[in-house]
Amino acid sequence: MPIDPDSYEPLYRQVAGDLRWRITSGALPPGQRLRSEPDLAHEYGVGVDALRDALAVLRSEGLIRTVSREGSYVREQTEPAVVHVEGPARIRVRLPTLAERKRLRLAEGVPVLVVDDGETHVLAAYETEIEIS
C-alpha cells in the first residue's frame, strides 16, 4: 500500500494499517521476522520514528512481538478464550506480573483481564471474550 504523505491520517497509522493487513491476510505468516526497522522505513518512505510508532501500535494489538537485538516477529494468532461469568463478578484490567507475562508469553505493556467470579482467571486481554449470563 502506498503511503500518502498528504493524507490526514498520520504516516505511522498508514504503515500500521498496511502491516496489519499483511499480517491478518497471511502475507506475513506467524513466526515470520519482519524486515529491519531501517529497511521497513525505506520501503514505506517514512522516518524510523514513524515506523517505530507503527510497530508500537501493532505490539499493543498483540499482532507482533519485539525481541531486543533480534527484531520483530508476527505473533501466532489464537482463538479467543471464552470465559462464562455467572452472577456477580468483578472484571479488572491491569498490567501483568513478570510471572504472568512469562506464562502468557506477553510483551511488555500488554494488559491482562482479571475475572473474579468465585475463581480468579488471569487472561491476555486481546485473546479473551467474556460472556455474562
Structure characterization notes:
- This protein is of the alpha+beta class and 133 residues long.
- The protein is 32% helix and 25% strand.
- It has four helices and seven strands; from the N terminus they run αααββββαβββ.
- The protein has a three-stranded antiparallel beta sheet, with no helix packed on it.
- A hairpin with a 3-residue loop joins strand 1 and strand 2.
- The chain is elongated, with a radius of gyration of 17 Å.
- The chain starts with 10 loop residues before the first helix and ends with a strand.
How are the elements arranged and paired?
Blueprint: H1 11-24, H2 37-44, H3 48-60, E1 64-67, E2 71-74, E3 81-85, E4 90-94, H4 98-104, E5 112-116, E6 120-124, E7 128-132
Parallel strand pairs: 3-7
Antiparallel strand pairs: 1-2, 4-5, 5-6
Helix pairs in contact: 1-3, 2-3
